[in-house]
Amino acid sequence: MKIGYFGKQNSFALEMLKRLRAEHSRDEFLTWQPGDKAPSTELEVIIAVGKVDSKEIEAQTKLGLLQMASAGYEGVDVEAATKFGVWVGSAPTTKTGNGGVSGGSCGAPNACGLSQAK
Q: Is the pLDDT of residue 118 over 50?
C-alpha cells in the first residue's frame, strides 16, 4: 500500500512516521510538505497535519482514507473528499492540544491497518 504523509517535517511527524514504518514494513511511505507536489498520484492513505485542499484530494486516483493527525476537520475540503469517495478521519494528539492519549501515534497506525482490510 502507498501511504503519504502531508505536512511539516517536525519531530512529531518524524516520530510518527518511524513508528508507522516499523509497524507497516511492507508498505511504501512517501512524504511531502505544503507547497510541494505530491510524490505520487496513487496514494491509498494520506496522513495529514494542516490544510488539505481539493487539489491534494483530486490529484490522487486511489485515495480511500484521509487521516488527519490533528484535531478536527477544519483544514480539510470535506466536500471534495465526499465527491471522490474519500473517508476522512481525525486522530487528535497531545501535541495538538487535545490532551489524553496521543491519537496520532496510535490512530494513524490503526487507520493504516484497517485500510488494508478492504
A: no
Contacts of 46 (CB under 8 A, 6+ apart): 3, 4, 5, 6, 52, 56, 60, 63, 65, 66, 67
3-state secondary structure of 94: helix
Considering the four listed CATH numbers 3.20.20.370, 3.40.50.720, 1.20.1260.10, 3.40.605.10, the one that applies to the domain covering 2-116 is 3.40.50.720
Whether 56 shows a pLDDT value over 80: the answer reads yes
CB 70 within 8 A of CB 96: yes
Residue 63: closest CA among 3, 10, 110: 3
